[in-house]
Specification:
Elements: H1 8-26, H2 33-40, H3 44-51, H4 54-79, H5 83-93, H6 97-108, H7 115-134, H8 138-156, H9 169-175, H10 184-188
Helix pairs in contact: 1-2, 1-4, 1-6, 2-3, 4-5, 4-6, 4-7, 5-8, 6-8
DNA-binding region: 32-51
Domain HTH tetR-type: 9-69
Protein name: TetR family transcriptional regulator
Length: 190
């Protein structure tokens, strides 16, 4: 069977997808470029040739995750430029556990001099995108992102999202929706 040769852009995306999986499982410190290479089906030197270092690969993965959120928000806003529309899009993204978990790893490593600027820029872009797309004022955008971070943390703990654990009373109270993760977005607007 002949192998189809991937373009440089396709290979880059393939490596970022493998890095997303690997960094989600092991975090920054617990992941090696060899693990990423094996997941992508390439050699470890190839990963280094494309990204330089594990740190640069991690930073590229964080940027990739943030841009995917921005893209999803832009698609949602094209249909309805509201916080509720963006909230529903984010609820869908909770199903992509890797996407939110790698961002949490990045936020946790935010004190690192190399990681911090990247995750702060990522979060700032998302904030500006929310305001730009919806016309939300600072308070509305702040509440929206605060609820998004809560859902991100709860999603990582499997309290929210499609594979959520059975609800305990505190979980339902915290989500404030009787069980539907999307509902708090409507409450966040006041």
């Amino acid at each position: 069977m002949a192998r189809t040769r991937l373009s440089a852009e396709e290979r880059h995306e393939q490596l970022l997808a493998a890095a997303l999986t690997a960094f989600t499982a092991g975090g920054y410190a617990g992941t090696t470029t060899d693990q990423v290479a094996r997941l992508a089906g390439v050699s470890q030197p190839y990963v280094i040739r494309l990204f330089g270092t594990k740190q640069q690969l991690f930073l590229a993965t964080l940027d990739h995750a943030g841009r995917r959120i921005e893209e999803r928000f832009r698609r949602a806003a094209a249909a309805a430029p509201t916080l509720d529309s963006l909230g529903a899009a984010y609820d869908d993204m909770l199903a992509e556990r890797e996407l939110i978990t790698v961002l949490l790893h990045g936020f946790a490593a935010g004190a690192d001099p190399a990681v911090g600027p990247v995750v702060r820029d990522c979060f700032g872009r998302i904030y500006r995108t929310v305001r730009e797309l919806t016309g939300a004022d600072e308070d509305e955008a702040r509440q929206f992102l605060a609820m998004g971070m809560l859902l991100t943390c709860l999603g990582a703990m499997r309290v929210a999202g499609p594979d959520a654990v059975p609800r305990e009373p505190w979980m339902t109270e915290l989500l404030g929706d009787g069980g539907h993760p999307g509902a708090p977005h409507t409450h966040a607007r006041g």
